[in-house]
């Protein structure tokens, strides 16, 4: 006879799979002791650049019980976004995660369905979904719940599938069975460090966010520093270099989430098309996309920077 903890844990993992999540791991909702000095050090060195929001809610970032009252468990979820088709080779590049519908909407809906299923099955369970938009250390929780290890490029890595997936959490006030972390399998490999065009990976397991191409093309609102000209490898929104060169990503398989399929027009666009993109086309192609975050003006700025 299964005890309730085992039964509920099994149900949540089975349901997560049914909803299309790649995997689901669970850890105890408690203070992240190891991450506290690491985060403090990163902030003190100003590696967040203009991302001032990273300074807010320091305690909440490290303690989920401050985010969800009475929380007992952090359910970490991975959702594959590796595309089945990639951009035209004569094109400015978009990070693969931004090809389709904005992941925030897609994942939030799935997690809400998961919470409803938990409540229907178990009863009065309270929880809150987090998709990269609240003060929570997604990768730390995913690693803690055995979904992978944090690689030298600071992305979560999984032996079977690499790193092209989104990470999200459901924090609930239900005690469950907890998973254990897996071991690091980066070994002596330094592919990501060697390949980073702007040398943003300053040492293994440390990324200076203020040097990352993703930061410059998405987060930075001012002009991109001219000394970086020629170093962006044609990335106009985000950057996948450290993931593209990672040996573990040879195991990546195309996703099966229709909402992540790109607008076919986007895949065919050439550099010339991007240079001539109008606001109307931008709105049409990126109607529900994460690219809207940089706005039309931001994308035009990035393209002009690459072209000059």
Automatic annotation (TrEMBL):
<feature type="binding site">
    <location>
        <position position="246"/>
    </location>
    <ligand>
        <name>[4Fe-4S] cluster 1</name>
    </ligand>
</feature>
<feature type="binding site">
    <location>
        <position position="189"/>
    </location>
    <ligand>
        <name>[4Fe-4S] cluster 1</name>
    </ligand>
</feature>
<feature type="binding site">
    <location>
        <begin position="239"/>
        <end position="240"/>
    </location>
    <ligand>
        <name>cob(II)alamin</name>
    </ligand>
</feature>
<keyword id="KW-0963">Cytoplasm</keyword>
<comment type="pathway">
    <text>tRNA modification; tRNA-queuosine biosynthesis.</text>
</comment>
<keyword id="KW-0479">Metal-binding</keyword>
<feature type="binding site">
    <location>
        <position position="132"/>
    </location>
    <ligand>
        <name>cob(II)alamin</name>
    </ligand>
</feature>
<feature type="binding site">
    <location>
        <position position="239"/>
    </location>
    <ligand>
        <name>[4Fe-4S] cluster 2</name>
    </ligand>
</feature>
<dbReference type="InterPro" id="IPR017896">
    <property type="entry name" value="4Fe4S_Fe-S-bd"/>
</dbReference>
<keyword id="KW-0671">Queuosine biosynthesis</keyword>
<feature type="binding site">
    <location>
        <position position="221"/>
    </location>
    <ligand>
        <name>tRNA</name>
    </ligand>
</feature>
<feature type="binding site">
    <location>
        <position position="61"/>
    </location>
    <ligand>
        <name>cob(II)alamin</name>
    </ligand>
</feature>
<dbReference type="InterPro" id="IPR013542">
    <property type="entry name" value="QueG_DUF1730"/>
</dbReference>
<comment type="similarity">
    <text>Belongs to the QueG family.</text>
</comment>
<keyword id="KW-0411">Iron-sulfur</keyword>
<keyword id="KW-0408">Iron</keyword>
<feature type="binding site">
    <location>
        <position position="167"/>
    </location>
    <ligand>
        <name>cob(II)alamin</name>
    </ligand>
</feature>
<feature type="binding site">
    <location>
        <position position="186"/>
    </location>
    <ligand>
        <name>[4Fe-4S] cluster 1</name>
    </ligand>
</feature>
<keyword id="KW-0846">Cobalamin</keyword>
<dbReference type="Pfam" id="PF13484">
    <property type="entry name" value="Fer4_16"/>
</dbReference>
<keyword id="KW-0004">4Fe-4S</keyword>
<feature type="binding site">
    <location>
        <position position="214"/>
    </location>
    <ligand>
        <name>cob(II)alamin</name>
    </ligand>
</feature>
<feature type="binding site">
    <location>
        <position position="192"/>
    </location>
    <ligand>
        <name>[4Fe-4S] cluster 1</name>
    </ligand>
</feature>
<keyword id="KW-0560">Oxidoreductase</keyword>
<keyword id="KW-0819">tRNA processing</keyword>
<dbReference type="InterPro" id="IPR004453">
    <property type="entry name" value="QueG"/>
</dbReference>
<keyword id="KW-0170">Cobalt</keyword>
<feature type="binding site">
    <location>
        <position position="212"/>
    </location>
    <ligand>
        <name>[4Fe-4S] cluster 2</name>
    </ligand>
</feature>
<dbReference type="GO" id="GO:0052693">
    <property type="term" value="F:epoxyqueuosine reductase activity"/>
</dbReference>
<feature type="binding site">
    <location>
        <position position="196"/>
    </location>
    <ligand>
        <name>[4Fe-4S] cluster 2</name>
    </ligand>
</feature>
<feature type="domain" description="4Fe-4S ferredoxin-type">
    <location>
        <begin position="174"/>
        <end position="206"/>
    </location>
</feature>
<dbReference type="Pfam" id="PF08331">
    <property type="entry name" value="QueG_DUF1730"/>
</dbReference>
<comment type="subunit">
    <text>Monomer.</text>
</comment>
<feature type="binding site">
    <location>
        <position position="156"/>
    </location>
    <ligand>
        <name>cob(II)alamin</name>
    </ligand>
</feature>
<protein>
    <recommendedName>
        <fullName>Epoxyqueuosine reductase</fullName>
        <ecNumber>1.17.99.6</ecNumber>
    </recommendedName>
</protein>
<comment type="function">
    <text>Catalyzes the conversion of epoxyqueuosine (oQ) to queuosine (Q), which is a hypermodified base found in the wobble positions of tRNA(Asp), tRNA(Asn), tRNA(His) and tRNA(Tyr).</text>
</comment>
<dbReference type="InterPro" id="IPR017900">
    <property type="entry name" value="4Fe4S_Fe_S_CS"/>
</dbReference>
<feature type="active site" description="Proton donor">
    <location>
        <position position="132"/>
    </location>
</feature>
<feature type="binding site">
    <location>
        <position position="242"/>
    </location>
    <ligand>
        <name>[4Fe-4S] cluster 2</name>
    </ligand>
</feature>
């Amino acid at each position: 006879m299964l005890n309730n903890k085992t039964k509920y844990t099994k149900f949540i993992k089975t349901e997560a799979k049914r909803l299309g999540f790649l995997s689901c791991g669970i850890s105890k909702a408690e203070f992240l002791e190891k991450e506290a000095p690491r985060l403090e050090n990163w902030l003190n060195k100003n590696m967040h650049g203009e991302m001032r929001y990273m300074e807010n809610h320091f305690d909440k970032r490290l303690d989920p019980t401050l985010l969800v009252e009475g929380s007992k468990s952090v359910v970490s979820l991975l959702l594959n976004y590796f595309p089945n088709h990639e951009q035209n080779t004569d094109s400015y590049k978009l990070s693969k995660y931004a090809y389709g519908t904005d992941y925030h909407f897609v994942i939030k809906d799935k997690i809400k369905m998961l919470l409803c299923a938990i409540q229907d099955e178990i009863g009065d369970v309270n929880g809150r979904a987090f998709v990269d938009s609240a003060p929570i250390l997604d990768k730390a929780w995913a690693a803690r719940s055995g979904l992978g290890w944090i690689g030298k490029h600071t992305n979560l890595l999984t032996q079977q599938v690499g790193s092209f997936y989104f990470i999200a959490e459901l924090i609930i006030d239900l005690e469950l069975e907890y998973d254990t972390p897996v071991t690091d399998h980066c070994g002596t490999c330094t592919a990501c460090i060697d390949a980073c065009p702007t040398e943003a990976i300053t040492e293994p397991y440390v990324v200076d966010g203020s040097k990352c191409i993703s930061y410059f093309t998405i987060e930075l609102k001012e002009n991109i520093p001219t000394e970086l000209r020629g170093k962006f490898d044609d990335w106009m929104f985000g950057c996948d270099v450290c993931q593209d060169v990672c040996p573990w990503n040879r195991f990546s398989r195309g996703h099966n989430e229709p909402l992540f399929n790109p607008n076919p027009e986007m895949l065919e666009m050439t550099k010339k098309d991007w240079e001539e993109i109008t606001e109307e086309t931008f709105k049409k192609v990126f109607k529900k996309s994460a690219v809207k975050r940089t706005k039309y003006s931001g994308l035009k700025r990035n393209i002009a920077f690459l072209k000059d």
